[in-house]
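Subject: Thiolase N-terminal domain-containing protein

B.,
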Amino acid sequence: MGNFAEGCAKNHQLNRAEQDAFAKQSYVKALKAIETNAFNAEMVPISVKTKKREVLVSVDEKPGRADFEKALKLKPAFEKEGDNYRL
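Prediction pasted inline below.
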């Protein structure tokens, strides 16, 4: 997937700054959709057994935790000179 993303970026001449801006915009839109319950019709709570108890998971706990300043400092992950460094 990462190498495919690198190829797409090259084919469409998207630089790192453009990719960063798109990623942040997409992330902000997703957070807004979560806050306004736009995804509720697509989400189904699931029961997860842990060692101590059973937990009902109905909300994704990861959104809202991204650090874009930190992400800007990461090195490419797939190609040495690539731009897709966060995948």
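The helical segments are 2-11, 16-35, 68-71.

T.
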